[in-house]
Amino acid sequence: MQGSYGPEFRAELLDLMRWRRDVRRFRTDPVEAAVLDRCLRAFALAPSVGLSEPWRLIQVESEAARAAAIDNFECTNADALSVYDGDKAALYARLKLSGMREAPVHLAVFCDEDTVKGAGLGAGTMAETRAWSVVGAISLFWLAARSEGLGLGWVSILDPDRLSRDLAVPAGWRFIAYLCLGWPETTDDTPELEREGWEARAPALIMERR
Questions:
Q1: What is the CATH number of the domain that holds 177?
Q2: How is residue 180 annotated by DSSP?
Q3: Which residues form a coiled coil (predicted)?
Q4: Would residue 147 count as lying in a domain?
């Protein structure tokens, strides 16, 4: 149906969003290429400023590239832990913040800040909208993956400059996200950080009127 969707579809969409979680615990079973390709189609459907489509993806497959990314995370995570003390440090140390060792698919996502596509429309006044466009595309990809039964984890505890060097990306590519994709060990509609007591969801949307 084009342009109009009924209550059953809206309920399923809400359910899809509710069960979309940041997954860190994966089974090591491979993801079929056809399934991954269906998920990746979400990028082509995503909006982008000036229709610039600035997303650039690298599938991190080699043993050396994955080892470098994992070491990057472990070093950066150790630095992040040092910021906390007491009970918060103990809780942080218990958290599983990456599924990089188990996830069968690793994707490094970048924004091409030098792209000429879109002729600078919109990005000329707010250049950061290119990066925001990439984040929006990732959100669609995340939902597409969940609809296939896959889990996705966004690893943010990384040194972006080091990762860009290790993957030898062009100078104009800005690192946005390191994504782990695979079949989750379990599914849950409550974020793991909430289950572990790190933080709770806000009880209501913060919105003001002017």
A1: 3.40.109.10
A2: E
A3: none
A4: yes
Residue 29 amino acid letter = D
Residue 3 lies in a domain: no
Quick check: pTM over 0.85?
yes
Q: Tell me, yes or no, whether 137 lies in a domain.
A: yes
Count of Cβ atoms closer than 10 Å to residue 55 Cβ? 25
Do the Cβ atoms of 22 and 154 come closer than 8 Å? yes
Q: Which two tokens stand for residue 63?
A: 């043993």
Specify whether the CB–CB gap between 116 and 65 falls below 8 A: no
For the chain, the domain total comes to 1
Length of the chain: 210
Each of the 210 residues of the chain gets a pLDDT tens digit; together they read 567 899 999 999 999 999 999 999 999 999 999 999 999 999 999 999 999 999 999 999 999 999 999 999 999 999 999 999 999 999 999 999 999 999 999 999 999 999 999 999 999 999 999 999 999 999 999 999 999 999 999 999 999 999 999 999 999 999 999 999 999 999 999 999 999 999 999 999 999 999
Question: CA nearest 157: which of 138, 177, 139, 141?
Answer: 177
Helix (H) or strand (E) holding 189: none
Task: Copy the structure tokens of residue 99.
Answer: 């599924």
In sequence order, the 6+-apart residues with CB closer than 8 A to the CB of 113 are: 54, 127, 130, 172, 173, 174
